[in-house]
Design brief:
The protein is of the alpha/beta class and 509 residues long. The protein folds into two domains: 147 residues, no CATH class; 327 residues, LCP protein (Aminopeptidase, 3-Layer(aba) Sandwich), CATH 3.40.630.190. It is built from 17 helices and twelve strands.
């Protein structure tokens, strides 16, 4: 038998309910796409027009910001990097989110949910609630991100550096500080000057051996009166990296200076290299692992097995970082890789440190920065101290972007270039540094007028091995011989002047 025909009254009710459902959904959709439009359509024109003006104002502001960014990117980044700007943006996102949620609730009300059938009423109410929750979560997350950026800019980029470009170069002193257990204060075990061409971004890394003795202290520094003939002690304990602790231990000689160790180290390295230091960045090596993990680790080609134990580890139980291509290092392995001194020298440690610096520069991408932004911000706040002003962040980002497509030159102020670390030839060191800068500038001159360098391929390989320390057993002796032989070969390559491209040593491109 055919189903009975519904009474006309029921048909009209079904049709009316469908119309009401479409109206309710339309009002929610209009609010989602153009806040305020639902209120204008439903008769609440005052609230609707105000909300639409705000929405159009936000769109206009975004377009203006985009235009300014395209016209003068560095100025725009510098303005945003001011600690106040992200706070304003964070509060704006929070207020817009609250307003949007209120408009969604009002659009749900205007849809007259009580007039809907029970099932449709539940559906529309659930959808409105879902949209409100998503909007609230999104605005709160955006508020958190911009608030973290404001905190980072205010905490790390306090400014105070020298923005003057000398000889067409920006020179940044990179210090790897270590204040671990058993250490007498913080000592910068890693001291490197990154000399960057202010136009092309081509970079020269000049690393200084921490064991250099007799470092000349420039006139005007209070420690010069105590060490007129250079930083030297009878027991040969006054090494270059000890200047930091020595100055901080004599703070009374530096009235008004909050960090005399940094002031002295910076002045002495500037005096040794002949490079005008614009900025410094001090990284706590103990917290360094957090930053590497926040970036998702790094990839390196490891040319030989690197021992990771200490001097007290028996050779038969020595853990090794196995040689390999495209080896993935997490924060802990990276820290152990750059710190180890077993079967090694300070010179080879400097090579490894520069390999890691180069890897971080070349493998940094917007994707891993955005996906792990909060972790990177927290790690940066905890381990980085710098005097780069926020106004210069855009310039440095621009130069770093250019540097990613160019080989990074490397010069080590240590044996074999400087064979005597007890009585270094300071005049020769200045010549070595100057020659390295000149060689880099000649490469830029040779590239002038030629097509832009082809971008390097992605640093993340399609097939990568994950590094795990292995324990040497029967092959420990052979591994030791391989390590020493390879280290000797690497040292010979540096001595022969074949190290202007770190990719040849540790494969970070």
């Amino acid at each position: 038998m055919a189903a009975p025909t519904p009474p006309p009254a029921d048909i009209a009710q079904v049709r009316g309910d469908r119309i009401s459902l479409r109206r309710a959904l339309t009002l929610l959709g209009m609010t989602l796409l153009v806040p305020g439009s639902a209120q204008v359509a439903a008769g609440n024109s005052g609230l609707g027009r105000f909300a639409m003006r705000v929405w159009l104002g936000v769109i206009a502001l975004v377009l203006v910001v985009a235009a300014v960014f395209l016209i003068n990117r560095n100025w725009a980044i510098g303005l945003y990097a001011n600690a106040v700007t992200p706070w304003i943006v964070a509060l704006a996102f929070l207020m817009l989110g609250i307003g949007w949620i209120a408009l969604l609730v009002d659009a749900w009300r205007l849809g007259q949910p009580r007039a809907l059938a029970t099932g449709h009423r539940v559906f529309v109410s659930g959808l409105a609630l879902l949209l409100a929750v998503v909007m609230g979560f999104t605005s709160w997350q955006a508020f958190g991100i911009f608030r973290s950026q404001a905190d980072l800019f205010g905490h790390v980029f306090a400014g105070g550096g020298n923005t003057t470009v000398t000889g067409g170069r920006i020179n940044i002193l990179l210090l790897g500080g270590d204040a671990g257990a058993g250490r007498d204060g913080l000592r910068p075990d890693s001291m490197t000057v990154a000399s960057v061409d202010a136009t092309t971004g081509r970079t020269v890394l000049v690393s200084l051996e921490r064991n250099l003795q007799g470092a000349p202290i420039p006139e005007g520094n209070p420690l010069r009166a105590k060490y007129p003939n250079g930083f030297r002690c009878a027991e040969q304990a006054c090494m270059l990296n000890g200047l930091y602790t020595e100055a901080n231990d004599n703070k009374k000689l530096f009235p008004g200076d909050p960090n005399p160790g940094l002031t002295t180290t910076r002045a002495v390295i500037q005096n040794i290299t002949g490079l005008q230091i614009n900025y410094y960045a001090l990284v706590d090596m103990e917290g360094f692992r957090e930053l590497i993990d926040a970036l998702g680790g790094i990839y390196l080609d490891i040319p030989y097995n690197v021992p990771l134990g200490d001097e007290n580890t028996p050779l038969s139980k020595m853990p090794y970082l196995d040689a390999g291509q495209h080896v993935h290092l997490d924060g802990d392995l990276t820290l152990r890789f750059v710190r180890t001194r077993v079967q090694s020298t300070d010179y080879s440690r400097m090579i490894r440190q520069k390999c890691v610096m180069s890897a971080m520069l070349k493998q940094l991408s917007p994707t891993n920065v955005l996906s792990k932004f909060q972790e990177i911000v927290q790690a940066g706040k905890d381990i980085v101290e710098t005097d780069v002003p926020s106004s210069q962040i855009g310039t440095l980002i621009d130069l770093a972007s250019k540097a990613k497509n160019l080989p990074i030159a490397s010069t080590a102020i240590s044996p074999p270039l400087v064979p005597d670390t007890v009585n270094p030839d300071w005049a020769k060191i200045k010549v070595i540094v100057a020659d390295s800068i000149t060689a880099s500038q000649k490469l830029d001159q040779a590239d002038a007028g030629s097509a832009a360098a082809t971008p390097t391929t992605s640093a993340t390989p399609s097939k990568a091995s994950t590094a795990k320390p292995s324990t040497a057993k029967a092959s420990a002796s052979a591994s030791t011989k391989t390590t020493k032989a390879t280290a000797t070969a690497t040292s010979s390559a540096y001595q022969a002047g074949q190290t202007d491209n770190l990719d040849q040593v540790c494969g970070v491109s």
